[in-house]
Design a protein that fits this description.
Chain lengths: 67, 228, 320
């Protein structure tokens, strides 16, 4: 335990802990990112297949033409 | 819309608030009792406080805490009542949004000013708070009340239809009011300890700037809150 | 092509952040007076900047939402606010650790600490508001309004509150030109009591001893845990000489100006940390760290906005 708290060693240990935490977070983020993209692709594909379920209603405005 | 029309609608909303308040006296009774209770509680808790250099700061902080929590109980009512009595829809049809906001703001301001007078008098009598510069003290209280009302009336309209309104009103208002509260407490402490106009001007200007900023922003945003 | 570019960017972000962590511990030199604690600015300052940027972005998307009523804008506003809150927590925690090591207290009610706490409270309130309104369009509208309203109070916090407090321990004079760190003026015949941070100071005397000018200042620590008479001095060249330490703390009091006949003195707090970035290595690591944290926040924001948007799309589809 004394070795761990030694000033020369402690800083390397602190750095390694920070690095390991960051790598864990990074890998997690990469996975979440991939999953989010896949989810978006699936949902958009599903919406394209069933256009009646689309929440965005198209409204077309027409002005009477003076013919 | 012409200016006079807006003014007339505002006056109508304000007078309506006043009338319904005079009929029930709900808000005034509740708030006055709240103020009396909290000042008495504070006085009992503190007892005969020793004359120390920090006394003005302690008194100023207590005064503003009582005012803040009284405002939390009182100021949301104007919009909550509309929802409870299901009159909001009628009001939407009857008056333009700006008039509704201005009318309610004026009513809240009146209510809070009455409350401030009550709290200040009680604090002077029961808490034996000494006001060494009365002029700056009064101006600080008035500008502080302006800031409190300008900062909370929009939020009162927001929480009127949300779940657990009372708690939400305090939660939403508190962070908005912190800058104003810090300034008001420090300024009031200065006024209590007898500082003249020259050094009390900075907090007064800050409070006015805060009230104006909040008022203008609320005016812009109110239509979005009030639209359904 | 786009896919590959995005992947490359993400991998380089991972490597860059690892590099920042390495440099923070092993490349940045120690700063005199700060010891190892000075390293934390490599994380603390960038996270604080990213926090402000994220909240500004969130407010902009709130304005856009009120104009467009598009679910995408609302999702972006929420995502930015969430990323901002996360980084705000980082900045607060790293700042508190720094404060404990350097100033001797985790929390000092320094103006900067107050303003970041208010920021946290505002966004806690923002999320509380969102969770207590059920109707989706109204929830989005009210949240946007609150976000803009809260944003308007920011200038008051950043610029007004610190001026009222007169002084700050926060070593911002090291980085920001024009920030106010002028200390507090006390007057024997007038306002002799003031506050430095959360310490109450009272001027007792101003005197001249030989070529030194000194002021006797009574300091009362918060909660009256400690009181002491400090006697800071400056020499006839106007340079602070004696810098007595506050009782139980590791920051000092300096005397900046004193006028013996008039009975006035201006004192300030001095904490280590000023001039931290004058070292080239520290400066470059600091700049790289700002960039990296900025991109990290951007990435987090993109992920979160995508998820929120897709979720809301699914919900509206189900509702129909």
């Amino acid at each position: 335990m004394q070795v761990v708290l030694d000033a020369g060693v402690a800083i390397y240990i602190a750095m390694s802990v920070a690095l390991v935490v960051w790598l864990g977070v990074f890998v997690y983020l990469l996975r979440i990112d991939a999953e989010a993209k896949e989810l978006k692709r699936l949902v958009l594909a599903a919406r394209l297949q069933s256009p009646t379920l689309s929440s965005e209603v198209q409204v077309e405005y027409r002005t009477p033409s003076a013919n | 819309m012409s200016k006079s029309l807006l003014w007339r609608a505002t006056k109508a909303v304000f007078v309506r608030e006043l009338r319904s308040e005079f009929r029930s006296r709900q808000a005034l009774n509740a708030v006055a009792l709240f103020a009396v209770c909290s000042i008495v509680a504070v006085s009992l808790g503190l007892g005969p406080l020793n004359r120390s250099a920090e006394l003005p700061l302690v008194h100023a902080a207590l005064l503003w805490i009582v005012l803040l929590f009284a405002a939390f109980t009182a100021l949301a009512r104007v919009f909550v009542v509309e929802e409870e009595q299901r009159t909001a829809a009628a009001l939407r049809l009857a008056a333009p949004p700006h008039a509704v906001y201005l009318g309610k703001l004026l009513f809240n301001l009146l209510l809070l000013c009455a409350l401030t007078v009550l709290v200040a008098v009680l604090a002077i009598v029961l808490l034996r708070m000494q006001v060494r510069s009365p002029g700056p003290f009064v101006v600080l209280l008035v500008t502080g009340a302006l800031g409190l009302v300008a900062g909370t009336t929009l939020i009162a309209a927001m929480i009127a239809r949300a779940a657990s309104r009372g708690a939400l009103f305090a939660v939403l208002s508190f962070p908005i009011l912190i800058p104003m509260l810090v300034t008001a407490v420090r300024g009031t402490a200065l006024a209590l300890s007898g500082t003249g106009w020259d050094r009390c001007m900075a907090p007064i200007q800050t409070l006015i700037a805060y009230a104006v900023a909040m008022f203008v922003t609320s005016l812009f945003l109110f239509a979005y809150v009030w639209e359904d | 092509m786009g896919e590959r570019l995005a992947m490359t960017a993400k991998i380089s972000l991972g490597l860059a952040m690892s590099g920042i962590i390495y440099a923070m511990f092993l490349v940045v030199p120690q700063y005199v007076g700060l010891g190892e604690a000075g390293r934390i600015i490599i994380v603390h300052v960038p996270t604080a900047w990213v926090t402000s940027a994220a909240f500004a972005v969130s407010a902009v998307f709130s304005i856009l939402y009120l104009r467009s009523r598009s679910g995408l804008h609302d999702a972006s506003a929420v995502a930015a606010a969430e990323v901002g809150t996360l980084f705000c927590l980082f900045a607060t925690v790293t700042g508190a650790i720094f404060a404990q090591v350097v100033w001797g207290t985790f929390w000092n009610w320094d103006p900067r600490e107050t303003s970041i706490l208010v920021l946290l409270l505002i966004y806690a309130a923002y999320f509380a508001l969102r969770s207590s309104v059920d109707d989706v369009p109204r929830k989005r509208r009210l949240a946007a309004v609150y976000n803009i309203f809260a944003c308007v109070t920011m200038p008051f916090l950043m610029f007004v509150a610190p001026r009222i407090a007169d002084s700050t321990l926060h070593p911002n004079c090291a980085f920001l030109q024009g920030s106010k760190c002028e200390g507090i003026s006390l007057d024997l015949n007038g306002a002799k009591i003031g506050q430095l941070g959360d310490v109450v100071v009272e001027l007792k005397a101003v005197q001249k001893q030989g070529d030194m000018t000194s002021a006797t200042v009574e300091v009362r620590m918060p909660g009256l845990t400690d009181t002491a008479d400090l006697i800071p001095t400056f020499d006839n060249a106007g340079q602070p000489a004696d810098r007595p330490e506050f009782p139980g703390q590791s920051f000092r009091m300096i005397l900046i100006e004193a006028d013996v006949p008039a009975g006035t003195a201006r004192v300030n707090i001095q904490a280590p940390g000023t001039g931290l970035l004058s070292n080239q290595r520290t400066l470059w690591v600091f700049m790289a760290s700002n960039l990296t944290f900025g991109f990290l926040a951007l990435w987090l924001y993109r992920i979160r906005a995508t998820i929120l948007h897709v979720t809301s799309l699914v919900q509206t589809t189900e509702a129909l």
